[in-house]
Predict the structure.
Amino acid sequence: MPELPEVETTKRGISPHIENRRVKEIIVRQKKLRWEVPNNLNRDLVGKMIFTVKRRGKYLLLASDNGTLIIHLGMSGRLRIVNKDLIAAKHDHVDVVLENGKALRFTDPRRFGCVLWEASDIDSHPLLKNLGTEPLHDEFESDYLFKASRGRSIAIKTFIMDSKIVVGVGNIYANESLFLAGINPKRPAGKISKAKYDKLVPSIKKILREAIAVGGTTLRDFTNSSGEPGYFKQSLNVYGRGGENCIRCGNGLKEIRLGQRSTVYCTQCQN
């Protein structure tokens, strides 16, 4: 599943190709995604300029002067810049065709992603209005997370993955951040000390920034029509390494299911 670093890297990859470009046509080959692609896209977006591409959580927001195109990659989605005449493959569902002969192509084999339109205030959209703080913004700091956790009995890993608390900390990066901070993922969020949160918040920021940096250097060319998403390869300390030895202490890493998600941690280093 694309997580925040992949979405941020996607944003950085497509932005130079579509910002300040005018839309010529919207081609919808499959409208039944997670939610149906609206019928009004050609009416509302064709002829308009895409001014900016922003990210809010895992949503990409393409802003024009009369509304915003909302894109979510879901479980298997990806975006590429292609020549508009490139023959579409089976799972190429939506093209935003630009006047320069290029197209932003949305591909999603599992169809859990979405392409939506918001003509009014984007921050009031139902999918966005209840989102928590951005983890790389200054307002995400240990005081905020500590106060939000008081009285909460849910596991800390589940807590930091709650998009109403903080957006974009997906399963991979929750595992990695908790390992870096030395916190057991099963511990109740409300019973973790302020000192531990002082370690956790910088750990989350560090893991995400490193992942974005690696993604920015190893992602495949966004103008490549090969169809490969090219999400970055990263050396992971715990995620996907259940049963292997901890890189710190050599103890065997334990893998459990927590909140229906694979969770890997070191029982010695994370307490």
Observations:
- The two ends are 28 Å apart (CA to CA).
- The first strand starts at residue 21 and ends at 28.
- The domain at 142-265 is CATH 1.10.8.50 (Helicase, Ruva Protein; domain 3).
- Residues 18 and 226 are 19 Å apart (CA to CA).
